[in-house]
Amino acid sequence: MFIRLTECESTNDEAKQHASQGAEHGTVIVTEKQTAGRGRRGAVWHCPPELGLAFSVILRPNMPRALWHRLSLVTAWAVASTLQKIHVNASVKWPNDVWVHGKKICGILLESTADAVIVGIGINVNVKDFPEDISHLATSILLETGSEYPRDLLLENIVAALLHYSDSCEENFSEIIHSIRSSCALTDHIVSLTLQGEKIIGRVKTISDSGELILETQEKTLTIIQADEIRVM
Ligand code: BTN
Question: Could you tell me the distance, in angstroms and rounded to a whole number, from the CA of residue 120 to the centre of ligand 1?
Fold first, then answer.
């Protein structure tokens, strides 16, 4: 079911409310305008009306809660693989950004409630200009392909891919990881990240079968489950 709103503060908040009222698995909340769109780590998410896509999907995962964290990578892969099908050279920036040639095209914000996961997705679809401070970091489908793409069609295809991959995630995670490895934006790159307050620099080796980032520092190999912003150096 698609719930279409002209304006709201954040589709993630709307989705949480619908989830608490029993909305079913796969319910999508999409809006033309967010007045308080949120990114990760408290950042603001700007999505220009008519040009971007901002929506949230309510998932009621059919797998143990301990595996819900897998949905970050699964969502990034659902978006990246859908974009690849329309000839956008998208890759997954672990754990849940989608990049094209080193620039961000999609941001993902996952939030859990007691019995649901809210998957918030923001995509730069037909955006031509970004604010100066992020123009070197962001891209869009229009900028990558030279043509506008119908936002409704993209929304339908991403939601279908997300439901397909998330519903089969418990059995097929290693297959999904295998695909992500071939489209991983970080593999072989030197990156810096902060882990429990400590700055770490290392080379990304791969993504493990269970979805962790494997990083080689000068001293040791680290298996990273969660990290704040990862910067490519
Ligand atoms: C990030 O990269 O920091 C995550 C950005 C997530 C933005 C989307 S837009 C739809 C949904 N509603 C929100 O308030 N945030 C997410």
Answer: 5
Please write down the long-range contacts of 45-51, taking CB distance under 8 Å and 24 or more positions apart.
Answer: 45/107, 45/109, 45/122, 46/131, 47/122, 48/127, 50/126, 51/124, 51/125, 51/126, 51/127, 51/128, 51/140
Report the chain's terminal Cα–Cα distance, integer Å.
42
Q: Which of the four pLDDT bands, split at 50, 70 and 90, describes residue 100?
A: very high
Structural contact between residues 153 and 50, judged by C-beta atoms closer than 8 angstroms: no
Residue 12 Cα to ligand 1 midpoint, Å, equals: 8
Sign of the torsion angle spanned by Cα atoms 108, 12, 149, 25 = positive
Q: How far is CA 17 from CA 13, 22, 91, 108, 126, in A?
A: 6, 9, 32, 19, 29
Question: Under DSSP, is residue 41 helix (H, G, I), strand (E, B) or coil?
Answer: helix
With CA atoms as reference, report the closest residue to 142 among 100, 107, 94.
100
Write down the pTM of the prediction: 0.95
Average pLDDT over residues 144-159: 98
Atom of ligand 1 nearest to the CA of 122: 9
Q: Which whole number is the average pLDDT over 174-182?
A: 94
